[in-house]
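Readers of this paper often ask what the protein records in our data store actually look like. Such a record has a labelled line for the sequence and another for the backbone structure tokens. Nothing more is needed to write down the fold, since each code stands for a local backbone conformation. The remainder of this section carries one protein's record, kept here as part of the documentation.
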Amino acid sequence: MDKDTGIEQLTSHWSNGLHIFLQLKYCSFINDECLKAVFMSNMNFFKRYNNLRGMTGTIGDKEERELLTLEYDVDCFELPRFKKYRFKYEKMKEIVCSSEREWYEKLIEDVNEKMELKTNKMNNNNKEEINNNKIQLEERYKMLKLKIEKTTTQLNDEFQKKSSIDKRMKTFKEMKNTLLNRKIQNQEDYDDNDDYSHQNEICEININQVKNEFDDINETIIDLEESLNLYKIQESDLIKNIQNYELLLNTENSVDQRRAVLIICENIVKLEKISLQVRKEFQHKGNKIYTYDRAYRKFEKSQLNCGDIIIATNIAGRGTDLDIDKFLERNGGLHVILTYTPNNLRVEKQAFGRTARAGKRGTGIYIVYDERKSNNCIPNLTIDYLSDVRNENEKERVNQIVTKSFHKIKIEDELFGKFDVFKNELNKIIERKYLNLKENELKENYFELQIKSLQNKWAFWLNNMEEKLE
């Protein structure tokens, strides 16, 4: 378990016998020592393809893109958004705190601001926006109703065709049975006559033809039924959304006007501390508070509502789609508080990308604690300064990958290629030399075990060369 994020690392093992030692200590199943013997790096795997195409939500900064271009000879470009990006970063409120106490106070203060029950009415711009959205959904609903009617008609026509085919099939089968009964009853008359064979062949041809038509009709019916079910699901969603917009326009004063807040923490320890402070402040106020600290736990809510507070490690920033209802969208959407500066721009974008999705509104802010500000090492510490340092460190990390890691990976791939050729040659020699030996002259699987022993020696040698390769 990654102690920072709560992600289960099921395929990871401690090296140099530590993993096996712990398994012995806790009387659990013992795995073999993990050594690289047969492997292929991700880099070499992708390079085996003649054409590479990929898509990602967060490709990173300039350095990461240049790295991909350098190694894989690919270009990077940004695909334009289908809908307007409506995220707003609250630059004026960002802060680097000098103590944990100040940090908790600022976090609570920001959440409190988003949870205030406001009584002001919607302005004309908001009303116009909601009404325009409602009109667009109503137009989509009309078009969808036409699709449903057309598909239903097509489906009924196909069922009629199927019924007609059923009758034809029944007729041909009855003809075949009649021929068979006549042959049984008049065996002598049919012995030297080709009439039965000819008529039976015609029946078989007709039956097979009808079967093919029947299969085609069934495929068409299945496709139409799937389309109709999809249209009806879409219809149900559209009706619900139109009703929500009508409710927003007609009951503007009685609607809950709170926001929902997502607080993203650096690790589980900090999550538990922040969660304690947040629950102390908001539990009794009727807010629903959720923690998301283990990747294997399914997130409890499919849709966020007004007043919800989620406290999570950065696993909430990795592809988790936090849907919001129409009332929350009207109030400004989900507000994201990032409580630490991530190691790179890509993770930052993932975190703030939990809000303002698919053209919806949303806000975000940095509220971080850095002890260097408290002991006067850097008294005027700012988010911009932390971001600049982070970006420089990321550049250095990418440079290390290019100058060291890639070279190491390439050498390992080359060494494995040579060992693989040697092993295959050795197998051929063994087959030629000992092909004529009687089975009882050698123990079962003798050569197979010898090759595995050789492979183990190679793996241990490669493990011992680790430092030199680095």
Summary: The chain has a mean pLDDT of 83. The chain has four domains: 1-34, 35-76+388-469, 86-117+257-381, 124-250.
